[in-house]
From TrEMBL:
This protein's record includes keyword Membrane: yes
Main localization, broad class: membrane
Topology term for the membrane: Multi-pass membrane protein
UniProt protein name: Energy-coupling factor transporter transmembrane protein EcfT
Keyword annotations from UniProtKB, A to Z: Membrane, Transmembrane, Transmembrane helix
PANTHER family membership: PROTEIN ABCI12, CHLOROPLASTIC
Length: 306
């Protein structure tokens, strides 16, 4: 339940949901259009600054622990299945079943680290999105962006699905331990076998929840046509409009820069130089300044509302 939205008394939580959605979606797109380590590092610092002002460090650490497992898996899979590059670090000429010759290249290691860095960034954006934005604000915010209601519902349901799965898993673990199932004792193989036994009840709970959601939607005539009314209506202030326009304009400018070659890092067949050039560093300064400017405008808008 630590991964669900809980209101806090700071200007990030009190700010408009549409504004927060536009900021985080912008960071999400930026993490895909650039692959240079320096650019990804700036985006990483930008999301950490938002987390710092949001005061949700403890909750976000859960995503870090989960991301560690995925990162290790991704790292080794990428090294084994994609051994490209010219700088060979380790090589075995003997044939392996299904793999043939095996080698590890420096380019593949760097590529794997960049992929992990990008995945971590996406997980942080996803976690921050889930923690600082009220689900009702997500629905209304996406609707204001003219996204169809069915797609909005799917997005909202998926964002809340992951915390519920973790909550169910914790309950199932406690129930199984009360029944005498040892989950933490024994060697790695026995621990793995015992933890696999948690999957079946977890899937059963998920299927039952999906049926309940479908019945609830049918009872509320979700697919009915016509204008929808909301109990609470999001009001967008003048400062909010400025932030949204600035965020969208900045994102369009960054997409243009990506087509001009900024933030593109060549990995294969040989790593390109990390050096960006003066213009590249100016872009990094602009990206950092934009984030601080947006946070400053959020704080100003909160003070004006008060």
């Amino acid at each position: 339940m630590q991964l669900t939205y809980k209101p806090k008394e700071n200007f990030i939580y009190r700010s408009n949901g549409v504004v927060k959605i536009s900021i985080l979606l912008s960071l999400f797109v930026q993490s895909f259009i650039f692959n240079h380590p320096f650019y990804l590092g700036v985006f990483f610092l930008n999301i950490l600054i938002i987390i710092l002002f949001s005061d949700c460090w403890e909750e976000i650490l859960i995503y870090f622990r989960f991301m560690l497992i995925i990162s290790l898996f991704t790292f080794f899979i990428n090294i084994i299945l994609y051994p490209e590059g010219t700088t060979i670090i380790f090589q075995i000429s003997n044939d392996f079943p299904l793999l043939g010759g095996f080698k590890i290249t420096f380019e593949t290691i760097i590529s794997s680290l960049i992929i992990i860095f990008r995945l971590t960034l996406i997980f942080l954006i996803f976690g921050t999105f889930n923690l600082i934005i009220n689900p009702d604000e997500i629905i209304q915010g996406l609707v204001k962006l003219k996204i169809p209601h069915s797609i909005v519902f799917i997005i909202t349901l998926s964002l809340n699905f992951f915390p519920l799965i973790l909550k169910d898993l914790e309950k199932i673990r406690e129930i199984q331990q009360c029944k005498g199932l040892e989950l933490e004792k024994g060697n790695f193989l026995s621990k793995f076998k015992n933890n696999v036994k948690l999957i079946l009840p977890l899937l059963t709970n998920s299927l039952e929840r999906s049926i309940q959601n479908a019945e609830a939607l049918e009872a509320r005539a979700f697919d009915i046509k016509g204008k929808r009314e909301y109990y609470q209506v999001i009001k967008i202030s003048f400062i909010d409009y400025i932030i949204i326009i600035f965020t969208i304009s900045s994102l369009i400018f960054q997409i243009y820069l990506s087509f001009q070659g900024f933030g593109n890092y060549l990995i294969y067949p040989t790593l390109s130089e990390v050096y960006l050039g003066n213009s590249g560093y100016f872009v990094l300064i602009f990206l950092s300044f934009s984030n601080f400017l947006i946070i400053g405008l959020l704080n100003l808008g909160d003070k004006i509302e008060k």
